[in-house]
Amino acid sequence: MNDRVHLAQSLPMTFAGSPLDRGDLIRRDATSLQAAFDQPNARCIQLCEGRPAMDESHQLIRFKMADTANWDATGPMIYLGSDQAGPLFACEIHADGAKSDALDPRQAAMNLPHFEAAIFAQAKSVFAWREKNRFCANCGQQTRQSAGGAKRVCDGCEIEHFPRVDPVVIMLATHEDKCLLGRQSSWPEGIWSALAGFVEPAETLEEACARELLEEAGVRADIAGIRYVMTQPWPMPHSLMVGLVAPVLGPELTIDTHELEQARWFSREDIRDMMAGTHDFAVMPPSIAMARRLAELWVEDVI
Amino acid sequence: MNDRVHLAQSLPMTFAGSPLDRGDLIRRDATSLQAAFDQPNARCIQLCEGRPAMDESHQLIRFKMADTANWDATGPMIYLGSDQAGPLFACEIHADGAKSDALDPRQAAMNLPHFEAAIFAQAKSVFAWREKNRFCANCGQQTRQSAGGAKRVCDGCEIEHFPRVDPVVIMLATHEDKCLLGRQSSWPEGIWSALAGFVEPAETLEEACARELLEEAGVRADIAGIRYVMTQPWPMPHSLMVGLVAPVLGPELTIDTHELEQARWFSREDIRDMMAGTHDFAVMPPSIAMARRLAELWVEDVI
């Protein structure tokens, strides 16, 4: 780990790098939030079943507020923040009222320019959370949106609920000159990726990484040898991917077939072939995926 | 950042370093879980209002299962995992049935030996989550515990709910030879600490760090200059503290008095005095706090 890894960390992944100021001072004050909404330059993006409305050049369409009047929305707009163009909101609509026949969310994300993908990710994460969190987990009553979507409030028990951000460790396990990739049976044919799993209560990122490697592949990492590489927001539905590299003590694998169909060691040459699309059987995840970035950095000896 | 920071990262914080194998294969199979419970060497720790039952030497009391029969529990036991001594469960009881007049949770944590604090943290996080998540956020029905507490299941809409782990960035902002500490009016007199805040949907750890510094103190961090230091589980209630160091572009402060009472720059000499308890007005948080660890590493020029 050296300055090269730091340089790599400063190249943001897809979904990172939002140009918006989330405007905490604005959203937490109802009057300020209304004033932002009422500005003539306020705009609104639209999501339908997780897909963004885009124009022909794959920009998110920024609708004027007047255009949104008849939308069949799934709930109130959320406030995303502001940039030089003005305040930006997002609205999710029911499928019937779709203004766009956009691609599926992953495909859409891959087609969006960098800043647009980050804005889309924010809206998508919050809507995904809202969809499954309309009731109070503490008392069972319906909750209502507050602070422009930054929280939901229960008028019954007066508890506030904040959007979930679920930390996930995704790690390139390494041993000597090879790295470990696995595949799940549900994935498209040929795709091999880094192992990953949700962080559980009361463990560090490094402990979660070691636990997942042991559970899924039967390999033991030295916790002190695990290194943080970078993070990426992942809005399907609302995870925070934490990329790590994890040297392990030995190459023997014991695969948990409940989690993985297969796992195996790949050489640098294998990885280069996968990147080039010339490998016998294995294909890398697309460039929006942390797994690919980790493999790229490893094959270049940066991590 | 060099090998010294890596050495520092390998010295785990309080609440990290659990010796238990969480036994994913056991907990996800009801028969295996029952078999673990039925083992003669199965034991159970007890929490009451967030406080652990401890013996005179500040070890968690490991009750035999027979001893737990009449406990006034707030819900089913949870399975924490296993170590060489056998399977370990945890039970939370109502205040009336308290078996111990233990200290408040923070105080208890400070008195627990390292491994014991990590076990306590796991139980405390899950119970804190369960207390506020007995209903389905998707449909409002009551949920039930499953997989030894690793999830809750809604029989109404058939959704599974997993314990929350809320990532929080806690960062030592630095400028030239000074570091930034703030204080909240609710804190004990004299305590100054690193700034911190919850990660929001669709931002990286580094973006969350930069946003919080700008929101709370009006200082701008260069995102590419922010460095990860280490993580710590924080079971009040179920956060994952991510320690960062963040060089900022200028020293001028604009304090958000909604969040902070004060913020100011401290020299290395100030920090040393605070550590020694000889500073004029400022006191460091206790050794269990990430803020203190970050300040220690910074004053020793490790980060």
Task: Tell me what you see in this structure.
Two copies of one chain form a homodimer. Chain A has 303 residues and is α+β, with helices and mostly antiparallel strands. Chain A is 25% helix and 25% strand. In chain A, strands 9, 10, 11, 12, 13 and 14 form a six-stranded mixed sheet that branches. The first copy, chain A, is globular. Chain A starts with a helix and ends with a helix. The interface between A and B is large, with 67 and 67 residues.
Task: Provide a short characterization of the protein structure.
The structure is a homodimer of 303-residue chains. By secondary structure, chain A is an alpha+beta fold. Chain A has 8 helices and 14 strands.
What is the ordering of alpha helices and beta strands of chain A? HHHEEEEEHHEEEEEEHEEEHH
* Proportion of strand residues of chain A: 15-25%
Task: Count helical runs of chain A.
Answer: 8
Q: Main β-sheet of chain A: number of strands, strand sense, barrel status?
A: 6 strands, mixed
Radius of gyration of chain A: 21 Å
User: From the coordinates shown, what is the CATH architecture of the largest domain in chain A?
Assistant: Alpha-Beta Complex
Mean pLDDT of chain A: 94
Helix residue percentage of chain A: 25-40%
Poorly predicted tracts of residues of chain A: none
N-to-C span of chain A: 6 Å
Number of domains of chain A: 3
CATH superfamily of the largest domain in chain A: Nucleoside Triphosphate Pyrophosphohydrolase
Biggest interface, which chains? A-B, 67 and 67 residues
Categorize the overall geometry of chain A: globular
Q: What class do helices, strands and sheet pairing of chain A give? A: alpha+beta
Number of strands of chain A: 14
* Named CATH topology of the largest domain in chain A: Nucleoside Triphosphate Pyrophosphohydrolase
CATH class of the largest domain in chain A: Alpha Beta
Oligomer: homodimer
